[in-house]
Structure formats: C-alpha cells, structure tokens
Design goal:
Blueprint: E1 8-12, H1 20-32, E2 37-40, H2 48-61, E3 66-69, H3 72-77, E4 82-85, H4 92-99, E5 104-110, H5 113-122, E6 126-129, H6 146-155, E7 160-163, H7 171-177, E8 181-184, H8 193-202
Parallel strand pairs: 1-2, 1-8, 2-3, 3-4, 4-5, 5-6, 6-7, 7-8
Helix pairs in contact: 1-2, 1-8
Length: 205
C-alpha cells in the first residue's frame, strides 16, 4: 500500500455519462500531471470491479494512492490503498480491521469539528470538510465554514482535506486556512484535465 500524501491535489473521479476508457484517460492525464491522490467515486457503477482495478493500476504506475469511496469490500478486493467513509458508510475501526494498519482511511466530516476529533481518535488517516463553495457534483451538500477549517488545523494532527466547488481560482484561500489537500471532482472534468491538474498543483508550490 502507498502512503498518504501530506499535501496536494486529491482528484475524485467523475463517472456520470462516461465509459470506463474515458474515466481511465481522464485520471491518467490527472496523475501524470501532478495529482497526489485519487478517489474512485461512482454512485451509479456499471462495472465497479473492472474500473477500480484499472484505476489502481494506473495510479500505482505513477506512485499515486487510489482510494475507494464508501465501499470497504471493494477496496479490499482490488488492493486499493484505502477507503473514504461518509456518514453512513461504517466506522474507522471496522475499516481498519478489514483493510489493515497501513490502509489510508478518510472520513467526511462536513462541517463538524466534533466528528473530525472522534475520527482522529478512532485512527483515521485524514478528515475531509466541505462543501466550501457551490458544487455541481454535490449540489445538495451542506455548506462548511472556513472557521471550521481554521479551528481543525489548530486541533488536529492528521491531514485535512477540503472539498466542494474548488477551482484553481478559489483553492488558495482554503490552503491558507488549513487545508493540506484539495479534493476536486468537477474542476477536472474539462477537455484539458492535464492543464487543470497543473493549475491546482501550482497552488501548493
């Protein structure tokens, strides 16, 4: 298993209306151009096992960890580097027991500092807050406050991820407020994902 990066672009797959080949091409361009970590997120999978395995192979070719969203069992089957857990996806302790001590386990904390503190105590590898801006990928997600990000940075000792409507134009404010990684979905679904990835990467240089 690959280790959790300390900072950088955290790319999340956009699978709606795309073939497996299109998703692979997009992610290949993104990791080739600087993404630090990738999450396979697919709310309407056609063949999740095949796509997840291909994504692991692509990401590992560039020494980039691949995380599975929601599904601990799928993460184990494809030898992914970890899993990302939402509010209804089980707890960190169960995921850790299933995937091992080296697995990357992330937790969505929305706007809850309390949930982040609890997740850290359970052994999470990172926590994620958001959404911070209007998001086409998650239009119904509850908003998160910059103040929560600032407070989390002071209290937590694990990496902090920001998500939700993040663009190269607004990402710097989140890094300045305490985000170690920027999770991006829609901002990478352009005809030039390689150039977009470079723009996000420049925020960390």
């Amino acid at each position: 298993m690959l280790a959790m990066p300390k900072r950088g672009l955290y790319a999340i797959t956009h699978t709606d209306g795309k073939t497996i080949d299109e998703v692979i091409e997009n992610i290949t361009n993104v990791v080739r151009n600087g993404a630090a970590m990738v999450q396979y997120r697919d709310k309407n999978p056609i063949d999740a096992l095949v796509l997840a395995r291909e994504l692991v192979a692509v990401c590992h070719a560039y020494n980039v960890p691949l995380i599975i969203n929601d599904d601990v069992e799928l993460a184990a089957r494809v030898d992914a580097d970890g899993v990302h857990l939402g509010e209804n996806d089980g707890d960190v302790i169960h995921a850790r027991q299933h995937l091992g001590e080296q697995a990357i386990i992330g937790v969505s904390c929305y706007n809850s500092l309390e949930r982040a503190i609890s997740s850290e105590k359970q052994g999470a590898t990172y926590v994620a807050f958001g959404r911070f801006f209007s998001s086409n990928s998650k239009p119904l997600a509850a908003p998160a406050d910059i103040e929560t990000l600032v407070a989390a940075k002071k209290i937590l000792s694990l990496p902090i991820v920001a998500i939700g409507g993040i663009l190269p134009e607004n990402g710097a404010s989140l890094i300045d407020s305490g985000a170690d990684l920027l999770a991006v979905i829609g901002g990478l679904v352009t005809g030039q994902p390689d150039i977009q990835a470079q723009k996000y990467g420049a925020l960390f240089s």
